[in-house]
Amino acid sequence: MIKLLHKISVIFMFPSMCRVLRFACSIFVVCLPLQELVAQDTSSNIRYNGELWSLAQLPSVRLSTPPAASNYEVLIIYKDYLNKWVIGGDLKKPTAEMIYVDRRNRLIGPFTSSQDTAGVDYECVDRKTATATQVNQGVYNACRSDFYSADTTVKVAQMVIACAILACLGGYDTDWFPIFRPQKLKQEILASGLMAQFEKYFQDKERLHVETRVALINDATNSLLDKLDSINEEAQDSASLRSSVERLTELSKEYNQQINEFRNENFHDTSLGFALGDFLSKKRQASDVLVSMNERIDESLQLITKNLNAIKLAERAIVSEIQALLKDQSYYTYAVDGLFGAGTLKAIKTFSQDVSLPVERYDKPKILRSVKSSFISPVGSCSKSLTDGAFVACFSIDNY
Question: What is the pTM of this model?
Answer without folding.
Answer: 0.59
